[in-house]
Amino acid sequence: MKIGVKVMPRKEVLDTQGRAVESTLRQAGRKLNACMVGRYVILDLPEIEKTAALAKAKEMAETVLHNPLIETFELEAL
Amino acid sequence: MSLPVGVLRFPGTNCDRDVFEALASQGARVEWLWHADRFDPKGYRALVLPGGFSYGDYLRSGALAARSPVMESAREAAVRGVPVLGICNGFQILCEAGLLPGVLIRNQGLRFIDDWMELNLVNSQPHFGRRMTAGIRTRLPIAHADGRYYIEEDGLKRLQDRGQIWWTFAKNPNGAVADIAGVMNEARNIAALMPHPERAMYEWMGGTDGAAFFDL
Fold first, then answer.
1. Chain B 11-40, residues with CB within 8 Å of chain A CB atoms
2. Residue B99's closest CA among B111, B90, B109?
3. What gap in Å lies between CA A20 and CA A24, rounded to an integer?
4. Distance CA B77, CA B7 (A)
5. Per-residue pLDDT at A13
6. Closest-CA distance of chain B to residue A50, Å
7. What pTM was estimated for this model as a whole?
């Protein structure tokens, strides 16, 4: 089963990529309130059962895919 | 014969030869340690993680290198008290491995910075630059895009209270919390900094302040 992992920068940490994209969009005349840039990871896991797949993805996200000091993550079954 | 100093190499490490030569110039016997191999944690008198772009900085700087097989042995050695030095990407790897507190994130100005920096020694280090005393100033080059040290307020207070801040920038180039350029673990056997002492070994390089870091 496939699990999507959305990793976003924490609000208290300067989102440098988001800021750069935001300023480029503004310079091109687009109006926007804010822009945040994160990362989306798709894990194709051998687990067929959703709970087991989510548990495994959670462990991977906690230990490798995100750094808790600067990022948060959310999981979704695809 | 004294034990060798191990220099860790990951795909994308690019300051490995400079670090090797810097250590050899100060009399150390040096051996390479490859990222995919484990090693005897009792076999080295010190370990150095050089700068570069390990694993292409994929995921986060240092994140993939921190989880490679060689780092399992490095962790065992560090726990036993073997001195470990991280330089630039080596600093990022040690933070990602959880061997040092905090994390290095993108420079505040978003640009890669390549420049010479004045640094203040906040707390002396018993292994790397052991002859340097707190309060002195040194001059070393930096070359990084992800060099902005970040730690949450509680963590910063712990670093300050326990004397774990090693170097600070005299003039903050990247937005680092509390001007931090280098930190140590609580036991003081693991230390890392963003500047490159191996690039300041001889006058022709632009300065000689780096040599003291490799006099183990």
1. none
2. B90
3. 6
4. 13
5. 84
6. 25
7. 0.94
